[in-house]
Amino acid sequence: MTTQEIVDSKEMKVIVFQLMDKEYAISIDVVTTIEKVLSITRVPNTPDYVKGVINLRGVVTPIVDLRQRFGLPEKEMDDNSRIIIVTTEEFDVGLVVDMANDVIDIREDSIEPQPEVVGTIESEFISGVAKVERRLLVMLNLEKVLQPIKRVSNDER
Amino acid sequence: MMDTNQYLDMFLDESKEHLQSCTEHLLELEQNPEDLAIVNEVFRSAHTLKGMSATMGYEDIADLTHKMENVLDAIRNEQIGVSTEILDVVFESVDHLEEMVMDIEEGGTGQKDVTTLVDTLNRLASGEELVAEPKTSAARPTQAAITPTASAGSVALDDFEKTVIEQSLEQNFNAYEITIELRDDCILKAARVFMLFEIFEQAGEVIKSSPHVEQLESEDFDTTFHVILLTEEAADALQGKAMKVSEVEQVTITAITRETLGASEEEEAAEKAPKQETVTPKAQKQAPVKKEDTPKKRRSTGGNSNKTIRVNIERLDVLMNLFEELVIDRGRLQSIASELHNQELNETVERMTRVSGDLQNIILNMRMIPVETVFNRFPKMVRQLARDLDKKVNLEIIGAETELDRTVIDEIGDPLVHLIRNALDHGIETPAERVAKGKSETGTITLRAYHSGNHVFIELEDDGAGVNRERVLGKAIERGIVTEEVAATLTDKQVAELILASGFSTAEAVTDVSGRGVGLDVVKSTIESLGGYISIDSKEGQGSLFQVQLPLTLSIISVMLVELDKEIYAIPLSSIIETAIIQSSDILNAHNQKVIDFRGNIVPLVDLKEIFEMEQNEEQGEFQSVVIVRKGEKLAGLVVDSFIGQQEIVLKSLGNYLQSVFAISGATILGNGQVALIVECNSLIK
């Protein structure tokens, strides 16, 4: 589900969102919905980037703050903030982003390996960089970003 | 195999149901051997199973069921009587069928070598007694190991068939190997075969043919075939009769004697052995012709079965989720209506509330299934165990119709098996001991299920030896579970409950049945993990009563909602003993652990705010709200800000992303749409 084949055009649809001043993209295939900010219930004893869980139409869905996941400065959620619900084979997770800009088609051959200096986020989360017109989109490697959280702390109790 | 994958689930479900029904009716039959109506029920299940498995291409199952059917048919036509030996064989067949079905379920082929069993069934169907083998069930497995490739002459004979022949020789029957050669230009081979078999069947018993009778019927042979016949008739007369059939070229009859039986073994082992199979299906197919009363005994299908449909449990879960959405919206609608004061809106909302309440009951009930589905495997198990242990036990089941949520049903099977094994092994005494104690020879185990409040109780009562205080205490002290000083102060009930402690096993000698090192403590922990509770009452010499208390469902539970710094948490009522408001001055310090004196017990306090990484209030108030929870015998007090109230909630998982979070067992959605986390008390108590 992470990458898809569009045989003819070799184009893929991606959702573009913003964190700080950079634009990121994930394939639309893994995105279920984009939600405005909902009330989040904090889950204790989890890493900081796990904001908590929400009630997404009856399903309890964990929420990950991408800023914190990437070690970027924290920001209060505001009217522009969005939660992108992604579905992997194993689970559903919501990603908190500053802004979800649009859906665009990008050519697969426009995706290049990550250049040396792209930003501050850890390179293992990045699968490549796409150049579309004058925009630079950072493609995310969701498998790495969303490693399941096992018993994280307080084991000693 | 044909493409039947889409039907596989249905096949598996239905096969299991039919096998279960076979087992139940067989047990019933054992109690009332005269009631041939029961045989009809078993026959019906077996027949359906045969049809289904043949359609699905599981020929071994179809074959074995077919043979079993022959026996059942013979019983209901009163050709053979019901005896424990016969039932043992049929039970074993059902066991094998179950194994095969399980194999298919696990992705296997459902194949299994059941040759010996098939032979036994054939023999039974033909009305022979199992005289020479009083302990058939014990003897059979070893035979199975050695027989598969044995062969004899033109017709392959396995040890079992040899035994059959030997036995009939002893009873002054003749055993013949008959070789029939049809004319080369024979047109109606199948018809000739049929006529010949008619003659043979009238004369005696065909125990084997080569090639197999089905191949013979489909003319899948050259011109010659062989038959092994047990008969009282002389060879000459038989040959004369056989030769009268048209298109028969030659009939050669060789007598099988004990010598040839023995001698044949080595020389024929080298020859190619046709797949051993027996000829009795033929006899079965002829049965309707011979016995006029058979057709009317064919069952009238259906009648008492309810009309049901199968629904995947996941669909019910989806339904449940959607319904919860509706409940949340209903709540919003109610609050809007109360603001608007519109008469018509109010009435509509009220109606909707009522309807959705009914809907909720129905949806919850759909997930409930009778505890019978767990209980129904016990009678057979008890029967078998009692035989293994040489004990006499009567199992009574009361309240099998009691309903429990599927989630619980799936989990309680194993603990109950363990308890029953324990009762049979350690509880019920041997018949001799029982008589010496002035009890009836047959012990009684009662399995009882009933609802009470929000719980289901399952009780297992036996009238066996009960818990021997001295022995249990001795062992507990030896194992270091209690100290001698403590031991003296324990009540009988407390002593009895020691056998649930981990590391405890009273069996002096380790037996097959229970006492395999994993003691009743496993039962206890399983039941506790389900939010249940187990207790024991025992009177020495009179028996024991194990009582298991379980929540009605694991998907909807009762909780106490508590507030912690504006956050709401749910604590399962099954863990809560009571709530209390204590004075801060009553909190004592022991080894850096805050404790309180709660009704004479020293109970450690757990600060939930600290556990849940919240900011501590600098100064605590004069009073503190405490929820006293338990894990087994141990208590703890959870300090919270305030109690909100008791509520029924729907248990939700946190999903696979948050795989395990300390002290949180799941989540639920509150009426206002917010998620509240459920506190797992077990991990808070050491």
UniProtKB/TrEMBL annotation, chain A:
PROSITE patterns: CHEW. It is found in: Cytoplasm. The keyword Phosphoprotein does not apply. GO terms for biological process: chemotaxis; signal transduction. Keywords: Chemotaxis, Cytoplasm. The keyword Cytoplasm applies. Pfam families: CheW. Residues 11-151 form the CheW-like domain. InterPro entries: CheW, CheW-like_dom_sf, CheW-lke_dom. One of its GO terms (cellular component) is cytosol. This is Chemotaxis protein CheW. It comes from Savagea serpentis.
